[in-house]
Specification:
Length: 129
């Protein structure tokens, strides 16, 4: 099944890249009007009008291939597996007991250790001048 999904994904990416290339190569509707009045850009690889039909039909075929690949990937992606249980059902709950953590902002600074309780009761001495 995985090989089939990979093949469909490769075909989808190649058709998308080919579509992008063909769409960028095609002339717009306004380019035909400029060619009618003697513009020098009227010559193309497939002739004046022959390339438009070939490239537009090829783009349409590639678009159909792209959408079929997209729909088949969506279909295969939504198939339910045989066991539709939760991922967390097999997890054991053996967490060790932890010591209480000081949640004060000063305790969250790395390398900052709180002073012992005996030193907190005595205010710091102010040096005499």
């Amino acid at each position: 099944m995985s090989m089939l999904l990979t093949l469909i994904l490769v075909v989808q990416m190649l058709s998308a890249l080919a579509m992008i290339g063909l769409i960028l190569i095609q002339h717009g509707k306004g380019a035909d009007m400029g060619a009618a009045f003697g513009s020098s850009g009227s010559g193309s690889l497939f002739g004046a009008t022959g390339g438009a039909n070939f490239m537009s039909r090829t783009t349409a075929v590639l678009a159909v291939v792209f959408f079929v690949c997209t729909l088949s990937l969506a279909y295969f992606g939504n198939l339910t597996p045989a066991s539709s249980g939760s991922v967390l059902e097999g997890v054991s709950v053996n967490t060790p007991a932890t010591a209480p953590v000081d949640a004060s902002p000063a305790a969250q600074i790395p390398g900052n250790t709180p002073a012992p309780a005996a030193d907190r009761s005595v205010p710091p001495a102010i040096p005499a001048k």
